[in-house]
Amino acid sequence: MDKEQKAFHKSRRELLRKAIGKDAVAVIFGSTNFNKSFDGNFRFKQYKNFYYLTGFEEPNAALILSDKEIGKTGSNELLFVQKKDKIFETWDGRRMGFENSGKALGIKRAFENSELQKYMNLAKNRNLRRIYVNISELIKLTGEVRQYASQFLDSLNRLAANAELIDIGYIMGKLRAVKTKYEMKMIGKASDISVKAYYEAIKSIMPGKYEYEIQAALEYNYKIFGSEDNAYYPIVASGENGCILHYEDNNCVLKNGELLTIDSAGEHRYYCSDITRTFPIGGRFTKEQRIIYDLVLKANKECIRMCRPGASFKKIGEVSDYIIADGLKKAGILKDKKDVKKFTLHGIGHHIGLDTHDAVSYTITREDNNDRLKPGNVLTIEPGIYIPGDMTSVPKKFRGTAVRIEDVIAVTGKGPVNLTSHMIKEPDDIEAFMSGNA
């Protein structure tokens, strides 16, 4: 971990301490290994909030934070990790060990996770007003950490009568909603990797190929260009499959004259990108496909322009629906503009960061208006139009058409910054690029 990343995670711990306030403690558990089948586990993935605070990527860890010294440790932050063990490391890989956490992560004090119960008891026995825990992750713990945390779990009902027991998720969501320069750099890197992979994968689009072949080209190139993982499972949907919003089968043959919607991206250092583009499989859009595509593109561009501090995210979505409703009516597809949701189906986008659909609040309360965009927000803009083949109210040439165009937008004081602007989306550019593929 380089100095820039260490400084980022340290700043997040400091911000969280400030957010929980005085006479409070936060106990945050990392992820554990989860069984897939028989003696095989799913590939380990750290809980995102724990990663946000530490950058630590091993299982069976926990973090305790407070505004003042915990026990007699001389520190207000304690990390608990797996012990060094030559046998386990021979089978499953090297472990950092508590001895190396200060140098590797910049965390002041660390212990073997077998000490966790002792220090949780010390933390909770102070005169506390609030105890913050990642409750949903706590109850899913497996293995040794669940054993060490069992006493804490058993005492939750007694603790609740003496101090407020609060899930950490809402506070973490507020922190994560506004990205730092470091985070924007990571999302930008994930986007650059994804765009490069898209350009390589487009070369495979042609009639007769299977959707999974395009998926394979994407995933291969994510790795080639430096992505550690997919941001989410790829959607490679040809023809009417594009009308299934989370289509994941990816097993159909690409057919000439149909469209291919690709919704896929890689991640970098746990930070995600999220890109959708729609391509004509034969290399050229039909007249009807071009009408739908141009309409979605118009909504995409206008909504991106609106991504400025103070703008209402809900209003941006309404503008997209207005543009699309107006265009569909002019094309003779929609009779009543109020029915536009039959064709648009989903919202205009979402926040993005450590999660593709980032775990941040969208609520509007008397204290917080999370609908108002702030500098540092990073979100997707992804209008779409979906016309299933059985929609008999629509002229036949438009049926079975699905178009979605999605970009990743950073909200700044100087205006929106499109982190995926280098991925082609103008229809003429797409046809020019694909001209050698058909």
What is shown here, in short?
The chain is of the alpha+beta class. The protein is 37% helix and 18% strand.
Polypeptide structure, described:
The chain is of the alpha+beta class. It has two domains: 173 residues, Creatine Amidinohydrolase, Chain A, domain 1 (3-Layer(aba) Sandwich); 257 residues, Alpha-Beta Complex (Creatine Amidinohydrolase). Helix content is 37%, strand content 18%. It contains 15 helices and 19 strands. It has a six-stranded mixed β-sheet, with helices on both faces. A three-stranded antiparallel β-sheet has the order 9-12-13. The protein has a three-stranded antiparallel β-sheet with strand order 10-11-14, with helices on one face. The longest helix has 22 residues. The chain is elongated and about 75 Å long. The mean pLDDT is 95.
Give the DSSP E fraction (strand runs of 2 or more residues). 15-25%
Q: Compute the gyration radius: what is it?
A: 24 Å
The total beta strand count reads 19
- Overall average pLDDT: 95
Task: Based on the coordinates given, report the CATH architecture of the largest domain.
Answer: Alpha-Beta Complex
CATH fold descriptor of the largest domain: Creatine Amidinohydrolase
Strand order of the largest sheet: 6-5-4-1-7-8
Topology readout:
Blueprint: H1 3-20, E1 24-29, E2 35-37, E3 40-41, H2 48-54, E4 62-66, E5 77-81, H3 86-92, H4 101-105, E6 109-112, H5 116-124, E7 130-133, H6 135-138, H7 143-154, H8 156-159, E8 164-167, H9 169-177, H10 181-202, H11 211-224, E9 229-230, E10 235-238, E11 259-264, E12 266-268, E13 271-272, E14 275-280, H12 287-305, H13 313-330, H14 341-344, E15 378-381, E16 384-387, E17 401-404, E18 407-412, E19 415-418, H15 427-434
Parallel strand pairs: 1-7, 5-6, 7-8
Antiparallel strand pairs: 1-4, 2-3, 4-5, 9-12, 10-11, 11-14, 12-13, 15-18, 16-17, 18-19
Helix pairs in contact: 1-2, 5-7, 10-11, 12-13
